[in-house]
Amino acid sequence: MSIKGKVVIITGASSGIGEATAKKLAKEGAKVVLTARRKEKLNKLKEEIEKDGGLAMVVTGDVTEKGDFKKIVSQTLEKFKGIDAIINNAGLMPLSYIKNLHTDEWDTMVDVNIKGVMNGVAAVLPTFMEQKSGNIINISSSAGRKYYPGGAVYCATKAAVKMFSEGLRQELAPKYGINVTSIEPGFVATELTETITDDEIKKDLIPMVKDLTTLEAEDIAEAIFYALAQPKRANINDIYIMPTDQKE
Ligand code: NDP
Q1: Taking every pair of C-alpha atoms in the chain, what is the biggest distance, in angstroms?
Q2: For 186-214, what is each residue's pLDDT tens digit?
Q3: 38: domain range?
Q4: Does 1 map to a domain?
Q5: Looking at the domain assignment, is residue 246 inside a domain?
Q6: What is the pTM of this model?
Q7: Is residue 248 domain-resident?
Q8: Strand extents, DSSP E, the chain
Q9: 3-state secondary structure of 123
Q10: How far is the CA of 148 from the centre of ligand 1 (A)?
Q11: Is 154 annotated as catalytic?
Q12: Which residues of 72-99 are buried (b: 16+ CB within 10 A; e: fewer)?
């Protein structure tokens, strides 16, 4: 199981799961392309990876901008001379009750969590189809499998990512040798809940997570590494990973 020398683009690499994944994959010998909007965080991560002997580059970008992905892909090809995988990880979770009509947040979730993933796929696909190989790893969620309070829109975006991934796999794996995986974590301790502005849901969330030993971002990084390190003949369709403590 080796990913040595693979060129991997990671969106949302500036914190949480993306950051932990970048460290893990770089440690395993991959050349990682770090992208997100916060340049300082990405530069700091690049320094850390290089200090540990890894290889990384930074290209800032917003996943809702197709033009930013063009830049990410062209700079990756220029520096690392290829692309082997993309981890479509960038996302946000401003949970709210539907009755409170946080419609701007609904729009942002659709734009980042769904369209952002589609933009990432579209950007690397010409390269992957030409070389008849590549890994697409999309970060869905346990929320893509079941609704939880305040998550009507968030869960819908993650269900869309899961179904989009299955469609990609069926259309691209047998014909073009492109492996596609959907990763579906339960609660992970990251900055994700900081995007919540609905006071009512903030209050209701506290008892839900109070006594929970959550997953760590590193646990998801291990799952991503596992999917990526398989031989091409083995497509890992889904990885559904929950905190041992989390019932629903
Ligand atoms: P974080 O908030 O730590 O990370 C989110 C990342 O997304 C950041 O790096 C942020 O970077 C990036 N991002 C947000 N909006 C944009 C944008 N418009 N363009 C580019 N990058 C963007 O949370 P997590 O690590 O937890 O989240 C990563 C993924 O995992 C998300 O898709 C989330 O839905 C999913 N997930 C998380 C779970 C959890 O419990 N934490 C459970 C299941 C799934 P920047 O602000 O610098 O642009």
Answers
A1: 51
A2: 999 999 999 999 999 999 988 888 889 99
A3: 7-241
A4: no
A5: no
A6: 0.98
A7: no
A8: 7-11, 31-35, 55-58, 85-88, 134-139, 178-185, 238-241
A9: helix
A10: 19
A11: yes
A12: bbebbeeebeebbbbbbbbbbbbbbeee
175 Cα–ligand 1 center, Å = 31
Q: Which residue is listed with tokens 């959550």?
A: 214
Ligand 1 centroid distance, CA of 55 (Å): 22
Q: d(Cα 243, Cα 50) in Å, to the nearest integer?
A: 31
CA distance 14 to 210: 26
CATH number of the structural domain spanning residue 150: 3.40.50.720
Question: Are the beta carbons of 87 and 9 closer than 8 angstroms?
Answer: yes
Closest ligand 1 atom to 142 CA? 43
- Say if residues 32 and 55 touch (Cβ distance below 8 Å): yes
Q: Count the neighbouring beta carbons within 10 Å of the beta carbon of residue 2.
A: 9
What are the tens digits of pLDDT across the range 48-93? Answer: 999 999 999 999 999 999 999 999 999 999 999 999 999 999 999 9
Of ligand 1's listed atoms, the one at least distance from the Cα of 20 is: 25
The minimum-distance atom of ligand 1 relative to the CA of 188 is 40
Residue nearest to atom 17 of ligand 1 (CA): 62
Residue type for position 161: V
**Ligand 1 pocket list (CB less than 6 A):** 11-12, 14-18, 36-38, 62-64, 89-93, 112, 139, 141, 185, 187-188, 190-192
- How many domains does the chain divide into? 1
Query: One of 97, 147, 148, 154 is an active-site residue; which one?
Result: 154
247 within domain boundaries = no
Ligand 1, atom 8: nearest CA belongs to which residue?
A: 12
